[in-house]
Amino acid sequence: MPVHDVQATPVDPPLDCRACPRLVEFREGLQAEHPEWFNAPVPSFTSPNPRLLVIGLAPGMRGANATGRPFTGDYAGDLLYKTMLDFGFAEGAYKARPDDGLVLADALITNAVRCLPPQNKPTGPEIKTCRPYLLSTLAANPSVRAVLALGRIAHETFLTALELKRAQFPFSHNGRHELPGTDLVLFDSYHCSRYNTNTGRLTEDMFRDVFTSIRQHIP
Length: 219
Ligand code: SF4
Prior knowledge:
Blueprint: H1 21-33, E1 45-46, E2 52-56, H2 64-67, H3 75-86, E3 90-91, E4 103-104, E5 107-111, H4 124-139, E6 146-150, H5 152-161, E7 176-178, E8 185-189, H6 194-198, H7 204-217
Parallel strand pairs: 2-5, 2-6, 6-8
Antiparallel strand pairs: 1-5, 3-4, 7-8
């Protein structure tokens, strides 16, 4: 497995990473419009020695892209952090600000793509270009035992990062996949976006069911 062969790549991209021209142009446009926003590749948020790795899709415009902390400031964060607090993967109070004092417990949150994509839709090449940071994040955290993919893109890029065949591990909500050659179990959930909850694709109970499965694996 390639998991431990990526020491040359930093865990977080440089804040001036220019590897994806479309995303750089988009964030520089926002920088001019909203200089008070973060508008840069969003670093992971972690506790020491996390056993749970949560992978989102990409920063939300008024969420992580504005605040600089994954899932902080938009609806997806409201549901994610509430659920993580309930299941003991976070401590403190989530107030949608990076200075709210919230800390993670036994958990790490990152995104498959670290820069905000237009319409929340990164392209295939952008997902591929940012994948080394996902792999280096995993390699730097050998304590990880459970991986939660929020949505199909996070699921697929993680499998690709590990050089595993997607067809062998199909995405399904509350799916659980033991990954051969690793000590990791991959759990799937529909993304906790406002769109998915508004349309009823994902309910709070469905999201909690996934965390119940994760807690059975890492009590
Ligand atoms: S998405 Fe990732 S690889 Fe692309 S510019 Fe942003 S940090 Fe760099």
